[in-house]
Design goal:
The protein is an alpha+beta fold and about 250 residues long. It has five helices and 13 strands.
Length: about 250
């Protein structure tokens, strides 16, 4: 078990952000599963974990989160601007706030590689390989964080394209857009887990936090954290853990 935990600790996860050419932006969505106050570049900072990817929400006087965040919040993480293109993020092209550009160059810098046409930065590793550091010390994204607001008319978050309509009295507790789309739906006292894969949408009862679907580590982290946040539970051992086996994740 110790060997398996160490292997999982070292593994990079697979999360594929989406590119919007009109906005020159990359983005992904997920649930906040951890928040930590740390020091970056000698400055007090706060980092949050979304879809098992670490993102800077604040450093010094610069805030990248549009509002205060809590564990269990569903958010969209994105980056846009002149320094963003379909090929990745190039901070040398950053325009606008000089302090934002300076911090981005320092936190999201990467070495040039003869094997790629992009710098090996945290942003570009995520964009091109779906890979993210398992610990914030080894790489953080300097992307904006926007909480996903409930639809005032429907009382739940806007549905992903093609998702079946939800019954009355339900709302979306969390969305993960990665290798597959996962949606946790709250219909107290019951809960449902929707998954979209090449076969279309599938759904299973998720009332006890157990899934009949085979989930990868990233998906399990998201689903379990969302379920616990939805139930008003906070398990420090779970949220603080960076090494757990797939078999133990739902115990």
């Amino acid at each position: 078990m110790k060997t398996l935990s160490l292997l999982l600790l070292a593994l990079a996860l697979h999360l594929q952000p989406v590119y919007d050419p009109a906005a020159r932006s990359w983005s992904f969505s997920g649930t906040v599963t951890d928040i930590r106050d740390v020091t970056l570049l000698g400055e007090p900072a706060r980092v949050v974990q979304v879809a098992d990817t670490w993102v800077v929400s604040r450093i010094g006087e610069v805030s990248l989160a549009s509002s205060p965040l809590e564990v269990g919040d569903t958010v969209t993480v994105s980056i846009s601007g002149a320094h963003v293109s379909e090929s990745g993020v190039d901070w040398a092209q950053c325009e606008g706030d000089p302090e934002y550009c300076r911090l981005g160059k320092l936190l999201d810098a990467g070495l040039d590689s003869p094997d790629t046409d992009y710098p090996l930065s945290p942003s570009n590793e995520l964009i091109h390989k779906g890979a993210a550091a398992r610990h914030w010390r080894y790489g953080v994204l300097f992307w904006s964080i926007e909480p996903m607001q409930p639809d005032e008319d429907k009382e739940y978050l806007r549905l992903p394209a093609g998702m079946p309509a939800l019954p009355d009295g339900t709302h979306i507790a969390g969305i993960l857009c990665g290798r597959r789309t996962l949606v946790v739906v709250d219909q107290r006292p019951r809960a449902w887990l929707y998954i979209h894969d090449p076969h279309g949408w599938q759904v299973t009862d998720f009332s006890n936090g157990m899934s009949n679907f085979v989930l990868d580590t990233n998906e399990m982290t998201f689903a379990r954290a969302t379920w616990r946040a939805m139930r008003g539970l906070h398990d420090p051992d779970f949220f603080g853990s960076r090494s757990f086996s797939p078999d133990a994740a739902f115990e």
